[in-house]
Design goal:
single chain; about 110 residues; alpha/beta; 4-stranded parallel sheet; about 40% helix; globular
């Protein structure tokens, strides 16, 4: 399981590329990825509360992990797990601070 920004250059060993943001990234063409699992992204309310503030990351992580237990999120997580069994997976996000993002939480959870 790898994590990259959607704007980074594609590497040869990325495997299945999956966008995990709820909102489509600006300037990115459709068909740039293998899949888009927006259902695994945090809720709009949680995303707006967090506001990409690193000081809130620990609480964001706790709340997001709780959200991931909801059925819709759980199904999307299962899809990611299934993809992992098929080979390498790269999660993609448009977030500038990848280390303090929901995508990092996903990588940590699935690794």
């Amino acid at each position: 399981m790898r994590l990259r920004r959607v704007y980074d250059e594609t590497g040869p060993d990325e495997g299945t590329r999956v966008l995990v943001d709820r909102i489509w990234p600006r300037g990115v063409r459709k068909g740039s990825f293998d899949d888009w699992l927006k259902e695994v992204a945090p809720s709009t309310e949680l995303r707006e509360w967090f506001g990409h503030d690193p000081a809130k990351f620990a609480e964001f992580r706790r709340r997001y992990l709780a959200e991931l237990k909801d059925p819709g999120h759980a199904r999307a997580l299962d899809q990611l797990r299934d993809l992992q069994h098929q080979g390498p997976v790269t999660l993609l996000t448009a977030t500038k601070d990848v280390a303090h993002s929901h995508a990092q939480v996903l990588v940590d959870l699935l690794s």
